[in-house]
Design a protein that fits this description.
284 residues; alpha/beta; Rossmann fold; six-stranded parallel β-sheet; 10 helices; globular; binds NADPH dihydro-nicotinamide-adenine-dinucleotide phosphate
Length: 284
Amino acid sequence: MSVTLLDGRALSREINQAVKRQVATLSRPPGLGVILVGEDPASQVYVGRKQRVAEALGLLHVQRTLPADITQEALLAELDALQGRDDIDGVLVQLPLPDHLDADAVALRLDPAKDVDGLSPVNAGLLALGRPAMVPCTPAGVMRMLERGGVPLSGKRAVVVGRSNIVGRPIAHLLEQANATVTVCHSRTADLAEEVGRADVIIAAVGSPELVRGAWIRPGAAVIDVGVNRLEDGSLVGDVEFAAAAERAAVLTPVPGGVGPMTIALLMENTLRCALARGAAEGR
Ligand code: NDP
């Protein structure tokens, strides 16, 4: 079986170009506000990438870098100030937060109209009800890749490994809304190999290097690898055993170069959508 690799870099470039063209027509640049707490190296890299893309597309990018020991109250006050700005259309708080901070309280405080990563209870609830408004960027990127890969979903068996609020759970909702029959697996799943082996579509979002073995995968399945794991030698691998999976899957995403760039592209698209909804008009 010959595998088709889905190129997230190429697809994200297309999305970015479309956003850039539309931004150039607007009366004002869409504004993205990003809060980074502490000095987690991976978070610094992600935030840096988002800034570079945002600026390349003509967005206003405002970053607040806050000390790792900031109090919950002070963090919420910073969030209020950033999302209260008229020139900011979308706000993102980079996760994970230091242990003493409550990410749920941050999600609760997000203005749903500016919640570009769809984490507020309002946006998460609308998605769960089948009325998606602002869909989290990574799940939206995964769905866009499946669409581009021509992967049929209706009536198919999909397995999502991972049930976080930011990745696994929203992906499961989106797949179910696309009429797949969805199984969600997690750390207590009794027989992961068996669940994965039944699936036509496999989404791996765990954060465990090569957890999903190639031999588990049903020949012809579509496999989207959301995981990003840095090994001791500095290399990056996903949650799927890539080389062995490529022997069996019909469609597969690489790590890096798969879902990662799509997450950033969808962040830009979501920020543009927020700006349009808040009245940024064409006519520059
Ligand atoms: P979380 O740690 O929040 O969630 C991990 C999930 O995996 C949990 O639901 C957990 O189960 C489940 N899990 C843990 N161990 C196992 C196991 N042995 N078998 C089955 N399930 C297991 O991670 P995130 O959802 O935030 O991220 C997942 C991965 O995706 C990470 O590698 C992250 O770096 C990557 N990521 C990539 C992005 C991209 O743009 N490419 C964006 C965001 C994340 P339980 O609920 O029972 O604890």
